[in-house]
Amino acid sequence: MPDLKLNNHETIPQLGMGVFQMKDKQAFMDAVNWALEIGYRHFDTAAIYGNEKWLGEALEKSGIDRSEFFITSKLWPGNFDDPIQAYHDSCARLQLDYLDLYLIHWPSPGYDKAWQALEKLYAHQEVKTIGVSNFLETHLERIFQTGQVVPAVDQIELHPYFQRPELVDYLNDHQIKVEAWGPLGQGKTGVFDEPLLKQLATKYNKSVAQIILRWHLQEGHIIFPKSIHQQRLQDNFNLFDFHLRNEEIEQIENLDQDQPNGSTSTNQNFLN
Ligand code: NAD
C-alpha cells in the first residue's frame, strides 16, 4: 500500500474506504469489519454522514493500534459558527483523541473564518493535518489571502468522465494533493459500460472498477471507494499486482466528458 507525502510531511495511505450513504448499522459494521480484515486502514467519513459513532465502535472493537489508522472527517457548514467544538464532537463520536485529517466539507459562506479555526487546531497539534473539500480555484485563492496554512488536500469529485484537468493542475502547482471522491462515478455515470475500460479489464484480467481505481492511483489521486459488499471491498483493494501502460493512462484521460455526477461540484453560485 503506497503512502503519499503531504505538504506538511505527514503521510497518507493512497487507498482507503469511504463510508458515505451507509445508513444501516449492521451493513455498516459488516462492511468495515471486512475492510479491516482485508487490510484497509484509511477511512473517510464526515459528521454529516451520521456514522462516525459506528466507525468509532468498529475501530475500537478491532483492537488494532490507533497509530495504524488514518481517519478523516469533515466540518459541515452548519457548524461553521464553532468549528473547534465540531471537531471535538467528531473525535468524541469516533472515540479518538485526534484525527489524521480534518476537512472543510464545502466552501459555503464563512469558509474563510472556518479555515482560521482549523488552523488553530493544527497549530495546537490537536489534528495532524487540515484540508478542504469541493473547493475551486477561487476559494483557494481566498484561503491563500486570508489564511496561514496551505490546505494539504482538496477532496473533489473526480472520475474518468469528470477529470477537471485545470483544477488538478492548479492543485499540483500549489502542492495540494487531490483526493478523488466518487472515484467510480458513484456507480451512476455509465462508466462501467465504457468499451475501452472493458477491453483493459479483459486484457489485465481485472474488473472495470479495478481498472478505474488503478488509473486513479497512477494519476497520483488519493481514493477511498465505497462498497458494502465483501467481494467488491476485496477487489477495490487488489490494485497492486498490475500496471497500466502510459498510453493506456492517456486513453483513459481522453474519456473525459467534463460531466459531474454531483450537481453542485462546479456551481460557483452555490459554492460562494
Ligand atoms: P464511489 O465512486 O466510491 O462509488 C460507490 C459505488 O460504486 C457503490 O455504491 C457501488 O454501486 C459501486 N462500486 C463500488 N465498488 C465496486 C466494484 N468493485 N465493482 C462495481 N461497482 C462498485 O462513490 P462515493 O461513495 O460517493 O465516493 C467515495 C467516497 O468519497 C465516499 O464514500 C465518501 O467518503 C467520499 N465522498 C465525499 C464527498 C464530498 O463532498 N467530500 C462526496 C461524495 C463522496
Automatic annotation (TrEMBL):
**Where is each NADP-dependent oxidoreductase domain found?**
17-256
Q: Does the keyword field hold Transcription?
A: no
Record flagged with keyword Oxidoreductase: yes
**Compositionally biased region (Polar residues):** 257-271
The alphabetized UniProt keywords are: NADP, Oxidoreductase
Residues of the region (Disordered) are: 254-272
Q: What is stated as this protein's family in its record?
A: Belongs to the aldo/keto reductase family.
Q: What is this protein called?
A: Aldo/keto reductase
Q: Which organism is it from?
A: Bombilactobacillus folatiphilus
